[in-house]
Structures are given as C-alpha cells and as structure tokens.
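To assess whether the prediction recovers the assembly geometry, we first specified each molecular entity separately, as shown.
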Amino acid sequence: MLPGKLQEVVDEFADLDRELRVEALLDYSRMVPPLPPHINADALERVHECQTPFFVAVEVGEDEVVALHFDAPPEAPTTRGFAGILSVGLSGARAGDILATPEDFYTRMGLADAISPLRLRGMSAILARVKRQIRAQLAAH
Amino acid sequence: MAVGTDHADKLQAYAHPERLVTTAWLAEHLDDPGLVVAESDEDVLLYETGHIPGAVKIDWHTDLNDDVARDYIDGEGFAQMMRSKGITRDTTIVFYGDKFNWWAAYALWVSTLFDHPDARLLDGGRQKWIEEGRPMTTEIPERPPVDYPVVDRDDTRIRAFRDQVLAHIKEQRQLVDVRSPGEYSGELLHMPDYPQEGALRGGHIPGAVNVPWVTAANEDGTFKAADELRKIYLEGQGLSGEDDIIAYCRIGERSSHTWFVLTHLLGLEHVRNYDGSWVEWGNAVRVPIERPGRPIRPSV
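The predicted structure of the complete assembly is given in tokenized form:
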C-alpha cells in the first residue's frame, strides 16, 4: 500500500487506456502548485536525471509531515506531470511513509506504453531526491 | 495536389531547398490541400499543450518504433500509421518539433526509409513558430482515414548497422560523431544534464570526427546559412559528395539532424545514420573504442 493519495493516483492511471493515461498525465502537469514565496532558488535541488531543468525542495515540518515543492518549465509537460503526481500523491504524507515508497511505484500505472523507459526513470530520480532531502532533514532535527 | 515550394532567399542557397520551409511560408499555406503538418517532439505531451493549427502528432517512441524489437515499424505498420494521420503517398508533410527539430528530423528520416516522396522540415521548428507569436491550438484535428500503400522499408541507403560501421572503420571511411565534446571524449556517458542511458563504456568510434549537431544551428532553432554549413562540413571536415559518410549520436535523433544537413542542405549523396549509435556501441562486446590519450582497444 502506498502512502497518502499516491495509491489512488496509481490506481486511477492503471484503470485507464493509453490515450486517457496521456490525458491524465497532462492534467497532473497542471496540478503543480507555484512555489511558495519562502522557497527561494537556493533551497531548490536540481534533478539531473530529468531531461529538462527540474527542481525539488522538501520541507519536513511538525510531526514529520512533509511538504513538497517542485519547479519545471511549462515546455516540459511530461516532467511537470511527474511532479504533479508526486505532489498530489505525497504532499502531506509522513516522512517515514514517503521513505517506504518503492521507487518503482509507477510501474503499475502503465505509463511505459506511452512514454519511453528512459524518460520514465525521471520519476524514480525525483522520488530519490525527495527521500534524500527527507533523510538529511530528519538527521538535522 | 502538388504543394508549391518556399522561395525564400535563404533556402535557395541549399542543395535541396524544396526540403525546408520557413515559418512565414507555412503560416500562409496551412490550409493548402495536400499538405499535412506533423509535430514530433522529445516531450511526448507537448503537442497536447498546444500545436500548429491542423497539425497531427507523430510520436517517435510509440508511432515510429516497433514495440517489441529495437527497430522501426515495418511497411505495414508505417502504412497504417500514415493512414490514421490522414496522410497519403501524395501528401506534402511538413515536420516540426521541439529541441531544434531533433525528433522532427528523426521522423523525416524514418519517412525516408519508406521513401515518402515529399517530406519537409519547418526551419526553426516549434521554438521559432512560438517566438514569432504565431497561432497555436489544443484542438486535435479530425482527419478522415485515407489510403497509404504498403512500401517496404529500405534500410540500405540511409541507415547503417553495427557490422557496417565495423567495416567502415576498417576501410577508414568518414564517421561523424555529433554528440557533445564530453560524450565524444568519453568523459560523459550521456548528454550534459540528461539521464545516464545505460552505455557501459565511454568514448567514440575509432576515426570519427566530432562535429556536435548544434554546430549546424542558429540560436533561434533555424539552420545556419548554406555558406556557413559548407565552411563547417566541406572545408572544415573535408567531407564531399564522393564520401561514404556515417553519422551517429546516442540513439540516432541528433544524428538525424546532421543527416538532414549533410543530405538535403549540402547535397551529399551517401550519408547514413547509425541509429544504434552509442547506446548500442558503448554496450557491444569487443567493438573498438577510441578515447583521448589511450590506444584504441581492441585494435582495429
């Protein structure tokens, strides 16, 4: 079982056919909230495995509830779609639950028939960065 | 119905000006019967966020490649794909896309494997069209299915395979590596800022010269003028129409861009694209690799 709403998102994709999956990914690309004012460029970490500039910042708050912030240019809708999935799926989840999320969680979503496998790896890379930042912040607490 | 060609001055200096159109020309001819605009992008969702009115999408991954073997679709698959996009054998296709037209050039190159008669590129691609504030839409065109004949794929003229590249090295023929200098030297196993794509070894094919694809492009995404291209490839690298030339990159998309330049803009007649490229070569057992300051291993 995946944390937060991520399980629902994965199930939603798994139930769609290929064309609708692409549309759903496009919907999620529009669900990336703008960066809040207190997150500045220095707090963002670049994810080099993504084919376009992509940045991630994680905040572990009270009770180890995690806030995720992503930034990617509008001309990179696929990468923004990955960010939207993680944002909707994991924002507000607890640190331990996110750390327990397998990095290949997206396999069941069936995106591989629409998106090249090399590109899909970007999703794992983003989640790996999120986890690393969570671990660093937990260690600093 | 035959669609006219673009008579813009810049294009006339190229060897085959009929293979390129300007954004201004396309804007005027969008509604020409017999013309279909096709978008091919690296980002597979980009078309859905907005495209040139009437344009169809050709996805390099799902439309052009076989879904089992690492190969292109066959004649039957290509005919079905073209039919579904409303393209006939007589249609003029204008390809355009993101990333300096890499995938548009790749799609054009694949259509050439099936000898589609009239395939052109939009000079400057998606980037220039948008920068000029030209119209975009999210409306997906409904093109009625049409007939397209089954034409066998011809891999002999413009496509090279690994064994042919090995023979090419032995005969000391021309090889052009169009990747970035860091990939060519073996310092990087992938494009700068791109994911590691699974090559186990770095370096280049022995004897290949390094002319990064971007050498042929202006910042606005258009191709450099004919005289500049001649300086780079003909004078600078000594390439000529007599030569048998193979271009490669990592999976064949950037080298499609250079293939287009050498073949259609400079008129060199024997240029092949090695689509296996570094993702194949850098993983293949016992193929020779050259790295700066190191002897070629295994020796050729």
